[in-house]
Structures are given as C-alpha cells and as structure tokens.
Amino acid sequence: MTLKAAIMRGKRSVYEDFWALDEVSFEVPVGSTFGLIGSNGSGKSTLLKCLSKIYYPESGSISAYGKLAALLEVGSGFHHELSGRENIFLNGSILGMSKKEVTQKFDEIVDFSGVEHFIDQPVKNYSSGMYVRLGFSVAISVAPDILVVDEVLAVGDAEFQEKCRQKFIEFKNAGKTVILVSHSMDTVQQMCDKAAWLKNGRLVQVGEAAPTIQAYLGSLTTGSV
Ligand SMILES: Nc1ncnc2c1ncn2[C@@H]1O[C@H](COP(=O)(O)OP(=O)(O)O)[C@@H](O)[C@H]1O
Ligand SMILES: [Mg+2]
Q1: pTM of the predicted protein model
Q2: Do residues 136 and 161 touch, judged by C-beta distance below 8 A?
Q3: pLDDT tens digits for 130-159?
Q4: Distance between CA atoms of 199 and 43, rounded to whole angstroms?
Q5: Is the pLDDT of residue 13 over 60?
Q6: Chain CA centroid to CA 210, Å
Q7: CA–CA–CA angle 32, 34, 37 (5° rounding)
C-alpha cells in the first residue's frame, strides 16, 4: 500500500481485493545475476517495489543483505521542474548518499550518463532515454551490493545498453548481486545465471536461467500453463 492508497482508501466505495503477488518464494544467491520474466501484469514491477521497500507485503517477508539501489519506472525519483544537476543531488540523497558524496561522484555520474550538455536543463525536457541514463548513473554510483533494475533500460539506445551490460559484468565480477526485469529473453539468457518466471502474481518456475526461459517461451507458443 502506498501513501496515496492509504489516504484514498476511506473515499473508495467499491473495493475489490486483488493479489498482485501470492505465494512467491525464492532465494537470490549473493553475487548472481537474477532475471525476472513473465507477461505484462504478472507482478514483476510489484515484486521489485517490494524488494526496494516502496511497497510492503501484507504477509511474508523479504530479507536482503547489503545496500540496495533500485532503478524502477522511467523518471521515478526525479522532480520534473528541477535540472539534471539538481536531480542528481535529489536522487542521490533518496538513495542514501550525503551531499559531499554526491559532489565527489558528480562528474563520474554525468560522464556515465552522457547527458552533460543538458545537465542544467529541467528534466521535463529530457527524453525517456535521457531520464534512464541519468537514473541508472545515479543508481550505480551509490555502489550498491544489490542492484534492482526494472525493464527501463530497454528505452536506452544501443550504445547505452552496451555500457549498462559492461557495468553489470563489472558488478558481477565484484561479487555484487543484480536483479533485473527484461522482456528481452536474449538479454536474460546472456546476463542471468538464474531466473524466475511469474504469471498472474504466482511463481511458475525458478532456477537456472536457460530452462526457465525455455519453459516461459514454450508456454507462449503452446498457450499452456
Ligand atoms: N497500485 C496498484 N493498484 C492496483 N493494482 C495494481 C497496482 N500496481 C499494480 N497493480 C496490478 O498488479 C498487477 C501486476 O502489476 P505489475 O507488477 O506492474 O506487473 P508487471 O511489471 O509484471 O507488468 C497488474 O494486474 C496491475 O494492474
Ligand atoms: Mg512492470
């Protein structure tokens, strides 16, 4: 439940219970790259929001060891009227960095994002690709132990996607954990050791990436499950 939902709850007359996630249970090994797959509306983003403590599960629990940084929907954590520069500080502080830390990392963040020419423009003028570049650059600059990324990276161009891929490999080599949602089965196949397949909020399969992807793709063609 978000703050908005809590406030609006009293005003709603018609109310229907809907479980976005139910009986989803799995472990992500430290240092692995873990893919979440499944059709639209299967609960992937909701699960990532639970991991990022934006939502709290009504029952069950989530345990994580280490610092977690997340890149969720395009533009989340950004203020539209503020400039790219100001948003780096805003976003950095949301992710737990001090002003001093952000100042130290500022050039590196801008450099990786590739939006330096537009850094003093309000971000409302940015393209969605530019948002994601900046958001991803801030998220990785906090040096998280666990990086959670929703399907947003797909809006970046080929060059940026390659940069992100390199960054994930760097992360992996440093023993960090990455949890990502992608609709590109090629990406999941290439990058992930393990994967979980969600359907209608339930876990259909979890395990090694290749057989999980195969099972998901198989269900799409045969219409089974
Ligand atoms: N805030 C919300 N209020 C009501 N339903 C929601 C909310 N967020 C997500 N849902 C519903 O939960 C389901 C899972 O959504 P989501 O996690 O965004 O799926 P995915 O990311 O896999 O496409 C969908 O049916 C969606 O409509
Ligand atoms: Mg989603």
Answers
A1: 0.86
A2: no
A3: 988 999 899 889 889 999 999 888 888 888
A4: 7
A5: no
A6: 21
A7: 170
Choose one of 12, 18, 21, 202 to mutate for the ligand 1 pocket test, by most ligand atoms within 8 angstroms of C-beta: 18
- The structural domains of the chain, with segments of one domain joined by +, span 25-66+145-225, 78-143
For ligand 1, atom 25, which residue shows the shortest CA distance?
41
- Mutate which of 45, 55, 73, 204 for ligand 1? The one with the most ligand atoms within 8 Å of its CB, which is 45
Residue 20 is predicted with a pLDDT of: 94
Sheet holding 68-71, edge to edge: 68-71, 146-149, 177-181, 33-37, 194-199, 202-208
Which of 205, 180, 174, 204 has the alpha carbon at shortest distance from 30?
A: 174
For ligand 2, the distance from its centroid to the CA atom of residue 44, given in whole angstroms, is 5
CATH for the 25-66+145-225 domain, from 3.55.10.10, 3.40.50.300, 1.10.3660.10, 3.40.50.970: 3.40.50.300
Contact 213, 189 (CB under 8 A): yes
Residues of the chain above pLDDT 90, percent = 64
CA of 47 relative to ligand 1 center, distance in Å = 10
Tokens, residue 127:
């393209």
- As a whole number, mean pLDDT of residues 85-113 equals 93
Residue 27's pLDDT is what? 97
